[in-house]
Amino acid sequence: MGGPSEVSRRTLLTRAAALGALAVPGAALLDACATGGGSGNASSDKGTVTKDNPLGVKVDAPLDVVIFKGGFGDKYATDAEAAFKQKYPKATIKHTGTQTITQQLAPRFVGGNPPDLIDNSGAQQLDMNSLISKGQLTDLTPLLDAPSFDDPTKKVRDTLLPGSVEQGQYGGKEVYAMNYAQNVFGVWYSQAQLDKYQIKYPQTWADMITACETLKGKGIAGWTYAGKYPYYVHFAMYGMIAKIGGLDVMKSIDNLEPNAWKNPAVKTAVDAFAELAAKGYILQGSEGLTHIESQTAWNQGKAAFIPNGSWVENESKPTTPAGFNMAVGGPPSASAADKLPYGSTWSASGEPFIVPKQGKNALGGQELLRIMLSKAQSQNFAKLVSSLTCVAGAADGIQLPPGLTSANALLKAAGQGVSNPRLPDWYPDLEKKSLGQNTGLLMHKELSTADWITRAQAAAADAVASNSAIKKFKHSS
Amino acid sequence: MRHGRNRFIVSFLAAPVAIYLIFVIWPYVQAIGLSMTDWSGLTPTQDFTGFANYIRLAHDPVFWLSLWHNVILLIVLPLITLTLGLFFAFMINVGGRKRKNQTVAGVRGSKLYQVVYFFPQVLSITVIAVLWGAIYNPNNGALNSGLRAIGIPSTISWLSDPKLALGCVIAVMVWWQVGFYVVLFSAGMSAIPDEIYEAVLLDGANRFTTFFKITFPLIWDTIQTGWVYLGIIAMDGFAIVQIMTNGPGGPDGATTVVPFYLWDSAFNHGQAGYGISMGVAMLIVTLLFAVLTLRFSRRERIEF
After folding, report:
1. Counting CB atoms within 10 angstroms of each CB, which of A66, A288, A422, B181 has the fewest?
2. Chain B touched by A39 (CB under 8 Å)
3. In a 3-state reduction of DSSP, which class is residue A138?
4. Which is more confidently placed, B51 or A14?
């Protein structure tokens, strides 16, 4: 194409541009470099709104879905996609199941062609904080206000468990994530094992120590934990802090308030875990185990208790022996002075589904979510992966596995005493790295409670609160 | 004529220079540019923030800790690896007992050792990290089991102890690298003419003198090259830290290194601009290291 003179002119122009860019290293250069993807807003095609199609999905627009294929697998999602396909036969669906969400999707976000729906979960999840602060996610309010799949007279928002909409809010009214799975955190154990040693699940810390001593006599460790990812310990510890000092203690910690960690409730709870380590109630070598290895050791009966979340039942399925009778207990009471009664625990919806703003078919992504939030798909999820969804009463009338039954019961017992620490999703770096590593040291007797608290406060107050590069969030109430 | 020759030279140089500029120099320039932005790594555009990332870097204790670990690696890794490599290579090639018809020979079975030492080089780094992760497992890992087998009731949790963790990483890196240097130095040593050895042996030199007066000076060039290679590996260390250590990068940041912290910030925490500024800082450190090594290790070359 074109004669030689045209080529040289173009080369000249390119050179001039390159020189100019080199000479003025500024925003202009930066806009031009590395990334180079489109920056315009990809407007998602809109179809006609009908009673059956309240969001106005374009019926033949292709749908691109990426699912975190971790503890829950991705069968539940492909089932929901099949339902979508049934409703919109002209649409083609591209499904990707992966554990490496960020690696797969970062280039697509940069290139301006992200998928339409992402289950942004797992260790490699996309950083929500930065996606939101750069305005890259769709506000899901229209979906929440749309009629629900099963009952057109009810809005989607009214079919959900309390708290699940808030879980998707990041300091404002907009809802950026639909957290699909309802997780119950706490102290997991095998009812069969406790029965064998005639131990009742210890509802006070004194009983916990007695139980651990009994088990120690039988050559069984009281506790194990995921030493390679020590923040797993927090799944019991944070719930205990809230139980001792009330829900506001964890809230002020989430809000990064000065001296929030200095609350005496924190000391009591952290001390309790330090005591387990000091008295040798922790399975030898736990500090070197991954979450899977620690769960396996627990399944094998080497340790009785493990801090974990309700996904553990599905995740440890391959290693769980028959008759294990998995169950979950709330954090034991430190004393009669605890603000909340036994039963209070950490429960929150997790597994955040997000709809990128630049997706070609954002409406399709939301429609798929609406289908997933239907009764049929929620029940399917509960059956497939032994976990509840954020849809209220979704599990009613179906046979649940033992762990989930127990989690359900604990949730009922907790009533209003459900804590929901937001550190893990607001400030994952702080939670997993700073605080998690400190807890690892604590459980390994390398760090005292006092130092743990000093470090936690310093990491939260200094490193995060004063870092302008990190967007801050606050509890609304 | 002259004009024709220039055109000839240019026509040969243009393509490689262009490729070099586009694929090597331009990415550097881009990286320096991006390091001055608030890029999250997930957006098509980014805002210019000047030196904010570098100022933050200067005040970031984790960065300095990571850099310090790289410096430790930079000093310790070549020292141990090269010493071991030299020792093994010498024993394989020169250090053996005197035998008939041979001026110098290696210890018995030296051929086998040469192959065995090279094994780790053949393995992928991922395999090595996973393998050693299992070896260090405090309960049923090979290390503690081995210690118990010889009567030491070891329950040391190698990777969970902040005092031991970095040492464990270094040990793996040495194990991984030493075989290559055994082979490299063997090649260097076999290039030294037998007559030189013959001469010193006639003069009554023992193995130590032979090594320090003959072998060492004559393969100095090779050692120097090895030092630079190892220095570059010491600046990295990412794969082992990421796959093998607790956290990863821990316990308590005990094994974090700059490339790991860079990756973690850029890809796990949506702070690509900040991560890239670490990369630029690392580029400067690496350049400094290369320049210093080449400057201070110059010696007279001996032709033979």
Report:
1. A422
2. yes
3. coil
4. B51
Task: Residue B280: list chain A partners with CB under 8 A.
Answer: none
Determine the average pLDDT of the residues in A227-232. 92
Tell me the pLDDT tens digit for each residue of A124-137.
888 888 888 888 99
> Strand pairing partners for A188?
A306, A328
pLDDT grade for A77, boundaries at 50, 70 and 90: very high
Element (H, E) at A327: strand A326-329
Q: In this structure, what token pair is assigned to residue B243?
A: 């796959």
Q: For B265, which residue in chain A has the nearest alpha carbon?
A: A429
Of A30, A38, A436, the CB nearest to B37: A30
φ/ψ (deg, to 5) at A405: -60, -45
Two structure tokens written together for A57: 């999905």
- A284 to B136: CB separation less than 8 angstroms, yes or no: no
Per-window interface: A 272-311 vs B, CB < 8 A: 284-285, 287-288
- The minimum CA-CA distance between A95 and chain B, rounded to whole Å, is 21
Q: Which helix (H) or strand (E) holds A352?
A: strand A345-354
> Which residue of A101, A126, A130, A290 to mutate against B (max B Cβ within 10 Å)?
A130
Candidates B40, B62, B242, B256, partner chain A, best to mutate (most A CBs within 10 A): B40
Mutation target to probe the A interface, by most A beta carbons within 10 A, among B130, B242, B268 is B268
Note the pLDDT tens digit of each residue in A141-152: 999 999 999 888
What pLDDT sits at residue B304?
A: 62
Place of tokens 């009669």: A336
For the record, the structure tokens of A321 come out as: 């022996």
Tens digits of residue pLDDT in B25-43: 999 899 999 999 888 888 8
* Phi/psi at A152 (5° precision): -60, -15
- Judged by DSSP in three states, A187 sits in strand
Domains of chain A listed by start with CATH number: 63-181+351-396 (3.40.190.10), 183-347+419-465 (3.40.190.10)
B158 closest CA partner among B149, B146, B150:
B146
What DSSP line would sit under A16-71, residue for residue? HHHHHHHHS-SHHHHHHSTT----S--PPPB----SS-TT-B-TT--EEEEEE-ST
Residues 6+ apart with CB under 8 A from B162: A441, A446, B250, B251, B252, B254
Nearest alpha-carbon partner for A384 in A368, A407, A400, A363: A400
> Look-up: residue for tokens 């490496």?
A100
Chain B interface includes A448 (CB < 8 A)? no
pLDDT classification of A288: cutoffs 50, 70, 90: confident
Which chain A residues are within 8 Å of B37, Cβ to Cβ? 30
Residues 6+ apart with CB under 8 A from A148: A154, A155, A156, A158, A159, A370, A373, A374
Size of chain A in residues: 477
Nearest residue in B to A34, CA atom: B30
Give B290→chain A minimum CA distance, Å: 26
Nearest-angstrom CA–CA distance, A356 and A132: 10
Sequence-ordered strand ranges (E) for chain B: none
pLDDT digit string (tens) for A407-431? 988 988 888 888 989 898 888 888 8
Mutation site for B-interface testing, chosen from A15, A22, A294, A437 by largest number of B Cβ within 10 Å: A437
- Residue B291: alpha-carbon gap to chain centroid: 16
Assess whether pLDDT exceeds 60 at residue A26: no
Q: Which stretch, A270-279, A307-316, A375-384, B49-58, has highest mean pLDDT?
A: A270-279
Q: How many Å lie between the alpha carbon of A422 and the closest alpha carbon of chain B?
A: 16
Nearest C-alpha in A relative to B43: A110
**Which amino acid, residue B279?**
G
Domains of chain B are 53-296 (1.10.3720.10)
With an 8 Å Cβ cutoff, is A446 touching chain B? yes
